[in-house]
Amino acid sequence: MWKTILRRVLIMIPELIILSVLVFLMAKAMPGDPFTGQINPKDSLTQIHHLMRINGLYDPWYEQYWHWVVHLFHGDLGTSYEYQEPVTRIIAQRAGNTLWLALLTMILTYVIALPLGIYAGRHEGHLQDTLVRIYTYATMSVPFFVVLVLGSWIFGYGLNWFPTSGSVSPTASGFLPVLLSRLGHMILPAVLGALFATSSITQYLRSGIIDAKHSDYVMTAQSKGVPMKAIYKHHIFRNALLPIAAFAGYSITGLLGGSIFVEQIFSYPGMGLLFLNAINYRDYTVITALVLLYGFLNLMGTLLSDIALSAIDPRVRVK
User: What is 87-312's CATH topology?
Assistant: First the structure.
């Protein structure tokens, strides 16, 4: 297992190199520059050209890329043009918010999806199954940003149950008040994100349980008098969880990288909102670092999914 993991990690190195080149070129190909909005618009273009020149933005792309790689191996991702701070520091300040929001969303997703999938699968063709399928079809058909906007409007502005911006109240002080304030700011976006993410997991689990129920080994166990409770516990559930395990790693990393809509609508200061602001202000260093980080997370998701799959089913071996 450890040799396989090491081999997968080594394979990730050329993939990250190719990704870094593509991301660097695409960022440089964006129209505009990072300095136009930072100076007096009455000044001439000479100042902008001077800033572009001293920051090396007029150098050939391969020279810029080489300087960026050299600094990368020294732990330096460059300086943000917008915030005038090291990119590593800016990302570190925002990564914690995104991590905790993604973790809470993932926990709520599986807490909701697993019982629904199991319940629908066990009651195939009955009213319970129909209600669960209606719920999954409804959540799959409505765009994610519509769910977020409606949830923010109803529970945030209408009922005023939850805050709709920020990550912590400015009046909170002390460990426990700050912790409760952070949790209060995360509950609404996490619940909305979990409700949207449960549909696919519920459908996969329901289909897996139904397929397992009608398999030959379940029928054989029933003919031998094995109780259904034991059959579900030791045979059906374990096999039905295989597709869920296959996507577990992607779910974790997808929540970390796919929180752009959530953070934008709720003004939540995480990496997603930082990424959108970097695009708006042509902050090339931040854009390159974040896209490379998201690419690395996706590759790690593949590895985590394979490991989880092999842990649930010993017959599956990570090749």
Answer: MetI-like fold (1.10.3720)
